[in-house]
Amino acid sequence: MARPFLSRIALMTVLAAATHTAWAALDIGDPVPKFTANAALGGKTFRYSLADALAKGPVVLYFFPAADSNDCSIEAHAFAEAVDQFAALGATVIGVSADDIDTLSKFSVKSCQSRFPVASDEAKTVIQGFDAVMQTRPDFANRLSYVIAPNGKVAYYYQNLNPDKHVERTLNAVRALPKATAAK
Question: So which residues are the signal peptide here (predicted)?
């Protein structure tokens, strides 16, 4: 009788360890998965390609849990206000969530102020690829921001459910990129 119980404990320990590593952010220097996704900018949908964006310079890729939630709207508004600062440094911004493209199309106008695109990842393949699954609510992306260098590697990441510091921290990280990298 004790043996099945111990086997269950061992299995739960292994699963917990495997699950824990699946929700850790990609580390600095890690190559990022390239992706294409349906995205919206100013209410218009298009096909976004991370590889195409990186060919132009660094990319600030931020994941957010749900369009139109209070904190996600605050964060999107803050990124919209800072888009010109990112652009002056040669960087672009893209937001990603598991919301459907119709929801994000409206969100791109309302909260993003038609200043940067947001991509739909209903299948959560991009979210999983970037280790951005919210551990406590796996149907949602965690609030996680990356600065990706043009070489396709993580230059910086910041994970915090509070939306207040994501723009400031990613902007500082883009400023800290080597000039040849930032201005590609």
Answer: 1-24
Determine the topology of domain 30-176 in CATH. Answer: Glutaredoxin (3.40.30)
Summarised one tens digit per residue, pLDDT across range 45-65 is 999 999 999 999 999 999 999
Q: Which of 126, 130, 69 minimizes the C-alpha distance to 98?
A: 126
What is the residue extent of each domain of the chain? 30-176
- CA atoms in the 13 A half-sphere facing the CB of 110: 13
- Count of helices and strands (H, E) across the chain: 7, 7
Res 109 pLDDT > 50: yes
Distance in angstroms (rounded) separating the CA atoms of residues 157 and 170: 8
Q: What is the pLDDT of residues 150-161, one digit of tens each?
A: 999 999 999 999
Q: How far apart are CA 42 and CA 113, in angstroms?
A: 7
Annotated catalytic residue 112: no
Report the distance separating Cα 25 and Cα 2, nearest Å: 38
Annotated catalytic residue, options 72, 132, 148, 171? 72
Element holding 134 (H helix, E strand) = none
pTM for the full predicted model? 0.84
CA distances from 54 to 127, 153, 166, 182 (A): 18, 10, 20, 11
The count of other CB atoms within 10 Å of the CB of residue 6 is: 10
